[in-house]
Amino acid sequence: MNCPNCGAQLPDDAAFCYKCGSRISSSGGRSQQAGGGSGPGMGGAPGPSSPVSAKSEQVIAPSGATSLKCPSCGAPIAPKFGEMVITCEYCGSGITLGTQGWTGVQKQTMLPMKVGTVDEVNSIIRPMMDKGLLHRHLQESSTQEEMNLSYVPYWIVSVSARTTVVTVNQAAQIGQTVTTAALMGVILGGVGGGFGGGGGRGGGRRRIFGVRRVGSVGLPFGGFSLPKIGAFGMGTGYGRGGMTKTEQMDANYNFPVVALKALTDYQPRGYQFDLGGRTLFDITKIPKSIKVLNGDISEDVAKSQAKTLVDQLQSENAHAKYHMIQQMKTDSDVGDVELLHAPIWFVRYDHKGKKIVLVVDASSGRLINSIGL
After folding, report:
1. Torsions phi, psi of 29, nearest 5?
2. Mean pLDDT, the chain, integer
3. What is the DSSP letter of 337?
4. How many domains would you assign to the chain?
5. Residues 167, 326: contact at Cβ < 8 Å?
6. Bridge partner list, 16
7. Average of per-residue pLDDT across 218-232
8. Which of 255, 278, 318, 329 is the most buried (most CB within 10 A)?
9. What b/e readout covers 121-153, taking b as 16+ CB neighbours within 10 angstroms?
10. Comparing 354 with 5, which gets the higher pLDDT?
């Protein structure tokens, strides 16, 4: 049947029009605008914490269902084995498999595609591959095996991280080490002079020191003793008297977790998408020639992965900033989650038997990550 409001072709049992958002009554007539005019076709970037869709969290099918209906337009959906995130091919609404069963995705957005041609992506890749003296003409001397553009689902997980770092005061540590080394040089120099015998410099004269024994080593009495050797240098003051300092590293992330297990090798690490230009997901804005991928990683799993990856990123940032870390602890809070569809270029080369893979954000033109480069 066709939408009585805009004329778009719809499944016979559609509840909403995917194009204009009109609710379709059982008699085929238009009853009202779905969501008060905030459907997928309305555009507009959602706020950081505002809902981007009005889909109900009600379970629409049990987890073992082999067929179900889209909660927005009523179109039939047949989940494939392992799929946990599915985009309706009619209206673009997303559903996800959770512990209670299949439910509608509450927040679903997309990034605009700005790098849409092969020439454009090649102009970005060439300087990346040819960077450095050893990589001159790397792209020209490599065989391109694959180049494709797809809309890839990412769970965007809001994570607030607080990392406490206990660092070693390097200046104080070095100062203590130098002082102790100089002191030992004086002590051991005196001991050497005291036991040098007549064969060394100064003719047969030698200075006589009173000594005491510590183990089998003779030491002078004059108020000096040999300091103990600490784990991070000489002296007994490590960890005391201003030798350590506590630092705080706080950061907020909109961390992307790729929702497809087959692409986990290309999981972003320190990369974050530019979410300022995102809009409500509208499948009609994506050319038919570009595939919209489904996912097989659930929202709950994505939350756990985001927390783990943020902890790792905080650790890497701390070690890059502080060279001597005695102790570190990170506490992370996971907040809102949304499903983002991002246009991604996957480019693969063969260079003398070595595989090179580049993953490029087709919205910003930036490199997400690379393998073999």
Report:
1. -90, 165
2. 76
3. E
4. 3
5. yes
6. 23
7. 45
8. 255
9. beebbeebbeeeeeeeebbeebeeeebebbbbb
10. 354
Of 283, 353, 276, residue with least CA distance to 8: 283
Contacts of 202 (CB under 8 A, 6+ apart): none
* Angstrom distance (rounded) from CA 51 to CA 318: 34
Say if residue 187 is in the same domain as residue 256: no
Confidence of residue 64 (pLDDT cuts 50, 70, 90): confident
Tokens of 147: 């180049």
Residue 4 structural domain: 1-37+54-105
Q: Please tell me whether residue 120 adopts helix, strand or coil conformation.
A: helix
Interior angle at CA 55, CA 110 and CA 17, nearest 5: 75
Based on the fold, state whether residues 271 and 322 are members of the same structural domain: yes
Sort 285 into a burial class: Cβ within 10 Å, 0-12 / 13-18 / 19+.
Answer: middle
Question: Could you read off the pLDDT of 132-172 as tens digits, one per residue?
Answer: 545 667 878 888 899 999 999 999 999 999 999 998 876 55
Ramachandran region, residue 103 (left: φ > 0; alpha: ψ -120 to 50; beta: rest): beta
Query: Does residue 94 sit in the same domain as residue 193?
Result: no
